[in-house]
Amino acid sequence: MRDGYEGTGPGAITPDGCAVELYSRLSVGGEPDIIEAAVPAGAHILELGSGVGRMTHPLLARGFTVTAVDESAQMLERVHGARTIHSTIEELDLGEKFDVVMLASFLVHTGEPEVRRGMLRTCAAHVADGGCVLIQREGADYHSNVPRERVDPSGYTVRIVSARPVGDGVNSVHVEYEFPDAAWTQTFLARPLTREQFEEALAEAGLTATEYLTEDGVWVRAVPAA
After folding, report:
1. Which of 173, 174, 222, 217 is nearest to 202 (CA)?
2. End-to-end CA distance of the chain
3. CATH of domain 28-139+192-224
4. N or C, where is the chain less crowded by C-beta within 10 Å?
5. At what angle are helices 195-204 and 113-126 packed, to 10 degrees?
6. Tens of pLDDT along 181-220?
7. What digits encode the pLDDT tens for the residues 38-87?
8. How does 38-51 read in b/e, with b if 16+ C-beta sit within 10 Å?
9. Is 87 exposed, middle or buried (0-12, 13-18, 19+ CB in 10 A)?
10. pLDDT band at residue 1, thresholds of 50, 70 and 90?
11. What's the mean per-residue pLDDT of the chain?
12. Largest distance between two CA atoms of the chain
């Protein structure tokens, strides 16, 4: 397990604390609708950090072509109908361009700045001319509105238990997931980014934000800087 990352619960757990069985159970919410409204119909999407295909499968059902990338082979075994590539995001170099590059799951908030830079460089390197990058950011109160919990319509509970400073602007976030028949926890490192810091990180990678797709500013459309 990576330093600062931990997971508990049934089944396989990846080095960043993600439980494969847990992620197979999580609902997708409205994300595919946001993506569908922001990109051309039938676009080829490079999904970075796809996990078990929580968003991959709904996007395929909407007629998109998806190339799913994840560092966990166990996660990718759960993905069906998409081309899958086993790789870390920051080291990916496919030599291809895509209509849409997607970096979801708040991955841009990784605790390590160099990893974030690598992820955003990968986004910039793989987006086609005229294409776009879709990035999911944390909400403004993600680290301050704790503890909090949400009961999903499908019946499970997610609790953000704590976001504890551990130095250098990074927090250790602890999350609990409770299902009727099982429970998991995940602890990971996350770096809060203001909108200004986020846009500076984009600019460093040669990207610029063109539109915040949701009122809460969580989903962002970016393009290569002119």
Report:
1. 222
2. 40
3. 3.40.50.150
4. C
5. 60
6. 999 999 999 999 999 999 999 999 999 999 999 999 999 9
7. 999 999 999 999 999 999 999 999 999 999 999 999 999 999 999 999 99
8. bbeeebbbbbbbbb
9. middle
10. confident
11. 97
12. 52
Domain layout of the chain by residue ranges: 28-139+192-224
At 73, list the tokens: 């082979």
Q: Spell out where the chain has E strands.
A: 6-8, 44-48, 65-70, 83-86, 98-103, 127-136, 148-151, 157-167, 170-178, 183-190, 207-212, 219-224
158: phi then psi, degrees, rounded to nearest 5: -115, 125
How many Cα atoms occupy the beta-carbon half-sphere of 120 within 13 Å? 28
Residue written as token pair 């539109």: 211
Q: Which amino acid is at 143?
A: H
Using CA atoms, how far apart are residues 128 and 145, in angstroms rounded to an integer?
38
**pLDDT, position 118:** 98
Summarised one tens digit per residue, pLDDT across range 27-37 is 999 999 999 99
Tens-digit pLDDT profile for residues 144-194: 999 999 999 999 999 999 999 999 999 999 999 999 999 999 999 999 999
The Cβ of residue 95 has, within 10 Å, a number of other Cβ atoms equal to 6
Residue 90, pLDDT above cutoff 90? yes
Report angle CA 8, 12, 16 to the nearest 5 degrees. 65
Judged on CB neighbours under 10 Å (0-12, 13-18, 19+), 211 is exposed
